[in-house]
Known about the structure:
This protein is α+β, with helices and mostly antiparallel strands. The chain contains five helices and ten strands; from the N terminus they run E-H-E-E-H-E-E-E-H-E-E-E-H-H-E. A hairpin with an 8-residue loop joins strand 2 (64-65) and strand 3.
Amino acid sequence: MPRYKLTVAYDGTDFVGWQKQEPPDPDAPAPAPGEEPKRLQLRTVQHVLEQTVRQVVREQVVLTGASRTDSGVHANGQVAAFTSEPDPSKGVGWPIERGTANLVKAINSKLPRDILVHSAEVVADDFNPIGDAIEKEYCYTMVSGAVRPLWDRRFVFHTWYDLDATRMQRAADLMVGEHDFKCFAQINHGRKTTVRTIYRCAIEQPEASKFVIRVSGNGFLYNMVRIIAGTLMDVGRGKIEPEAVREMIASGDRRKAGVTLPPMGLRLEWIRYRGDEQ
């Protein structure tokens, strides 16, 4: 029973996130006693990709993803995995000898244009895309100034304020290390602990008005990167001082950090596993 790891990219604009969602249909008649209510299948990346993989391998595989990106969030290096049970007599499954390159071609030929599988590889039977991840990197891109973006508006956040990258980097440096990031988490985040380790938080400025915030760590809380980005934006515009980050972290008070920026500027860049080349 080969297990396959897929590296996936997608434009999250027209998805309601990665994770499958099947809420009750509000327009359906009330169910009879003992019956389940009729449910809607929302357009999620997991559902669309899983249905496509099932069509290709002709079996009801279950696709598990590494990161539950929110509605409107993009990915360049999402990781998903499924296990196939080939049965040549029934013509189902994807035997290893058919090759991972052919698997990628077959899946991509049937996917909508806002999802793309970069690669596939055979992994251990117990590979867990969530639990085995040791590092992830997200980036948040914003454009500042009087001219709002047009052609890449689905992938960047625009702010009218001019930003100072040097100030932003001073604040970003204070986020590196193991901290309790409660102040940078959405309230009711649902996690047992808010302690995380940030390995890198860097501000890149590829153009005068474009700022890319890159954050890598061993894990992230709900909306954590978008709140970090909002905080760094406030630092860059001069609303708060860079050194205020220390007080935010020490307080654990969500109200002391910046706003949660919209999802369109956020992208999951990559996920690293033990044994991956650095």
